[in-house]
Every structure is written in structure tokens, then in C-alpha cells.
Amino acid sequence: MSISRCAQSWIKGVAYHFGFSLRRLRVASRNAASGGDFTGKVRSLLHKVDPYEGFPWQSYPDDASGWGSASPAFGELVAAKRPQRIIEVGTWKGGSALTLAEHVAQLGLDAEIICVDTWLGALEMWTDQEDESRFGSLALKHGYPTLYYQFLANVCRAGRQSLITPFPIPSVTAAQWFALRDVRADLIYIDGSHEEEDVYQDLVSYWDLVRPGGVLFGDDWGWDGVRFAVERFARENGLTITHRHDKWELVRPA
Ligand SMILES: C[S@@+](CC[C@H](N)C(=O)[O-])C[C@H]1O[C@@H](n2cnc3c(N)ncnc32)[C@H](O)[C@@H]1O
User: Fold this and answer.
1) 107 CA distance to ligand 1 middle (Å)
2) Do residues 221 and 189 touch, judged by C-beta distance below 8 A?
3) 93 C-alpha to center of ligand 1: Å?
4) N- or C-end of the chain: fewer Cβ atoms within 10 A?
5) From the alpha carbon of 119, which atom of ligand 1 is closest?
6) Mean of the pLDDT values across residues 79-102?
């Protein structure tokens, strides 16, 4: 007799609460008949209150500047995969998430884009206090970044609140949450830290969350840390790296 995915997810949540490790729960999930894949909206699991509700977005400038955000790769992948769920790791002001949302909307897909970011900045945003586009954009208040609010304002200004769900925690922790809740995605975009060990950890954490036939892709092939990590992960797992415009890709077999 098989138990429903919802019940499995609930049992895993309870087991985790009582001290079972994620490793043990993951093995149990792999052995389960359904393989585990939550098909509802993650927003409903993640936020009890709408994160955009009452947000005064008009008081923020129109600034969704970022890196690699307008790449044609986003539109091509959305058209090819017609995703039901997209996870983005590294969102900054929302440039790439908004591009993805635009393509999802154009195709009329009933999809959800979950943005994982601490909104505290990556290493390179903290190394040069004179760099307005990086350190300056963190917009510190009393020493703490307020970049998240610029992201929220950009999503509101574009009218994409229903498509984009923020998840403001470290990438590996978010992946653990997704695993615990059986949340998988058709497209996963990796654009968080560019340091080799961090990128490698993101790859290890998110690869298992890609649905069969889905794509894990990312930015910044030109960064040593990214390239070395992707090459190492692909080699260790017998995967082929392909390239689409400025993005690298790993395709999960269907
Ligand atoms: C290069 S920016 C993302 C650019 C964005 N995709 C765009 O279109 O402009 C990298 C982002 O990753 C986030 N980040 C870095 N390391 C992270 C981690 N370990 N967990 C979560 N977010 C992280 C930073 O806060 C930053 O916003």
C-alpha cells in the first residue's frame, strides 16, 4: 500500500522535528514508491502571510540592474521545458527572475519561480566599499543590507508578485527545506556565490531536486570558481556540460 505524497512529506517533517537527519530521511524518500514530488504551490508552504502585502514599493527607485539577467537562454529554456516550477539560487535585485517571469507569463504557464537568496550579498559585493553597483547596492542600514526591499519593489513594479516567491535563507539550507518537503523543479538556475566550494555545494544540494528531464543551469562560466566546481561535479557524476548563450547547463536524464 502506498501513502500519499502529502502524508509522506508530513511524516518527514515530524521525523525531522524529532531529530532524524536529512540524510536518513532522503534515503527513506528515495525508497518510497512515489519518489516524492510536491505538485502544489511552494508559496503556500513557505509564507503564512503574503510577502508583498502592503509593501510600499513606490518609494523605491526603478532599478533591477544585475548580471546576465536578460540572457536569451532564459526564454529558450522556458519555451523548451514549459516549467511548472523554477528555483533560482541568487536573485539580487530580481533581474533574472523577472526575465524568467516574463517568459512564463508570455506562454501562459501556471508556474512558480522560487527565489533563494539571503539578500546579504556574495563575497565580491563586500570586497570594494567604493563599488556602487555591488557594495553600494546592498544599501546598508545600521550595518545590515536592505537589498531585499529593492528586489520586492522591482517585483511589485513589474506586477509579477503572483509568479515570484522569495525564500530568504542560505542556498544549502533552502535545498534542505526543498528536500524535506519533496519540492523539485523543472529548471534550477544557480547564480549565488562564485567561490568554488560554495558552487560545488550548491550543485550537490540542488542536483537531486531537478525533475527528470529538467535542467540545472547557471551563470558566470568565466569565473574560475564556477567553472572548476561545475567541471568537478560533472566529472564525478558522469554528466556532460553544455552551453547556451552565456549559461552553462547540466541536463537530468528523463
Ligand atoms: C550575482 S548575484 C545574482 C544576480 C542575479 N541573478 C541577477 O539577475 O542579477 C548573487 C546573489 O547570490 C546571493 N548569495 C550568495 N551566496 C549565497 C548563499 N550561500 N545563499 C543564498 N544566497 C547567496 C547574494 O546575496 C546575491 O544576491
Assistant:
1) 27
2) no
3) 9
4) N
5) 25
6) 98
Provide the strand spans (E) within 149-236: 164-167, 185-190, 210-218
Q: Whole-number mean pLDDT of the chain? A: 93
Can you list the domains of the chain with their CATH numbers?
A: 68-251 (3.40.50.150)
Beta strand ranges found along 73-161 (DSSP E): 85-89, 112-116
Cβ(69) – ligand 1 distance below 6 Å? yes
Separation of CA 80 and ligand 1 centre (Å): 25
Taking alpha carbons only, the member of 210, 219, 223 closest to residue 251 is: 210
The answer, yes or no, to whether residue 29 has pLDDT greater than 60, is: no
Ligand 1 centre from 51 Cα, in Å? 19
Q: pLDDT digits over 216-235, tens only? A: 999 999 999 999 999 999 99
Look at residues 215, 241, 239 and name the one whose alpha carbon lies nearest to residue 226.
241
Residue-wise pLDDT tens digits, 156-208: 999 999 999 999 999 999 999 999 999 999 999 999 999 999 999 999 999 99
Q: Which atom of ligand 1 has the smallest separation from the CA of 202?
A: 19
Q: Please check the confidence at residue 17 and state whether its pLDDT lies above 90.
A: no
Quick check: CB of 122 below 6 Å from ligand 1?
yes
The protein residue whose alpha carbon is closest to atom 16 in ligand 1 is: 193
Contacts of 211 (CB under 8 A, 6+ apart): 37, 184, 185, 186, 252
